[in-house]
């Protein structure tokens, strides 16, 4: 029997569920509280990620060489990861020289293959991950440069010194002629136009003209190769990976 006023043996029992701290919490209660806080923090982080990816910005991986040398997606190198601003075109329209990510219209999807697993469980996990932005969306997202906008006429015909918009030769410092055979410059061996860009649409081309399936290859579409502005996901702002490639992706207006 414990003496009057002496320590209670039960209070020294590390397994006792009756111990409380100065806030009146038992160890078991504190553990439950920590787990609840952790679950809430994870849920909030996922929600914020979802909201940011849906409405503000998103990180994309460059899948091809079509935008060399501006964006690297070359075979054998580390592809660029870019930040796409989804707010930019809520307050204005795309302009010549903007580098944009857009969802390919149906005719642009001929070579697209789903990234999803055939396993239904893995596919479900991938779809869930896509919602919060940790897995790429299962859609044909492409990146190109805006060359002409609605109401303008674009062409590159035999005898032209290069791409023209409204009859004016474009100045395109972002094109590296080393990415194309010398005899393919300036039209990269593909002549087109003149094409009038429809309303609410843009004409897009890759900076690597000799290795880009862009508007030139879809002139039999209803929009004659143009992309509806509603298909544009956003404007490319930054290269964030790899670290050696950090920097701003500049919009260079070729019509100046």
Can you offer a commentary on this structure?
The chain has two helices and twelve strands. The mean pLDDT is 79. A hairpin with a 7-residue loop joins strand 5 and strand 6. It is of the alpha+beta class and 256 residues long. The chain has a single domain (56-248), classed as Umud Fragment, subunit A (Ribbon), CATH 2.10.109.10. The strands form two sheets. Strands 1, 2, 3, 4, 9, 10, 11 and 12 form an eight-stranded antiparallel β-sheet that branches. Strands 7-6-5-8 form a four-stranded antiparallel β-sheet, with no helix packed on it. It starts with 26 loop residues before the first helix and ends in an 8-residue tail after the last strand.
Radius of gyration: 28 Å
* Mean pLDDT, all residues: 79
- Per DSSP E runs of 2 or more residues, the count of β-strands stands at 12
Which oligomerization state do the chains in this entry correspond to? single chain
The CATH topology comes to Umud Fragment, subunit A
Overall shape: it is elongated
- SSE order in H/E notation? HEEEHEEEEEEEEE
Largest sheet: 8 strands, antiparallel
Task: Quickly count the helices.
Answer: 2
Count of individual domains: 1
Q: How much β-strand is present in the residues?
A: 15-25%
Low-confidence stretches: none
Essential attributes:
256 residues; alpha+beta; Umud Fragment, subunit A
Task: Explain briefly what this protein structure is.
With 256 residues, the protein is α+β, with helices and mostly antiparallel strands. The protein has two helices and twelve strands, in the order αβββαβββββββββ. β11 and β12 form a beta hairpin.
């Amino acid at each position: 029997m414990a003496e009057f006023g002496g320590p209670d043996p039960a209070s020294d029992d590390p397994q006792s569920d009756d111990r409380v701290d100065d806030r009146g919490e038992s160890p078991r209660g504190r553990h439950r509280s920590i787990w609840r806080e952790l679950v809430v923090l994870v849920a909030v982080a996922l929600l914020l990620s979802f909201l940011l990816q849906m409405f503000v910005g998103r990180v994309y991986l460059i899948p091809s060489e079509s935008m060399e040398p501006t964006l690297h997606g070359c075979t054998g190198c580390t592809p660029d990861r870019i930040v796409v601003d989804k707010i930019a075109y809520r307050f204005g329209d795309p302009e010549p020289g903007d580098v944009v990510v857009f969802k390919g219209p149906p005719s642009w999807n001929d070579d697209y293959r789903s990234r999803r697993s055939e396993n239904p469980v893995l596919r479900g996990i991938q779809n869930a991950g896509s919602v919060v932005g940790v897995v790429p969306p299962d859609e044909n997202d492409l990146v190109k440069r805006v060359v002409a906008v609605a109401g303008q006429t674009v062409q590159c015909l035999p005898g032209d010194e290069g791409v023209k918009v409204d009859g004016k030769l474009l100045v395109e410092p972002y094109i590296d002629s080393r990415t194309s055979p010398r005899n393919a410059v300036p039209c990269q061996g593909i002549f087109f136009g003149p094409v009038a860009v429809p309303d609410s649409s843009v004409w897009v081309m890759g900076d690597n003209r000799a290795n880009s399936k862009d508007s030139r290859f879809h002139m039999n579409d209803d929009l004659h190769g143009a992309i509806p502005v509603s298909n544009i996901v956003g404007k490319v702002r930054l290269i964030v990976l790899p670290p050696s490639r950090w920097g701003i992706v500049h919009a260079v207006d070729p019509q100046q």
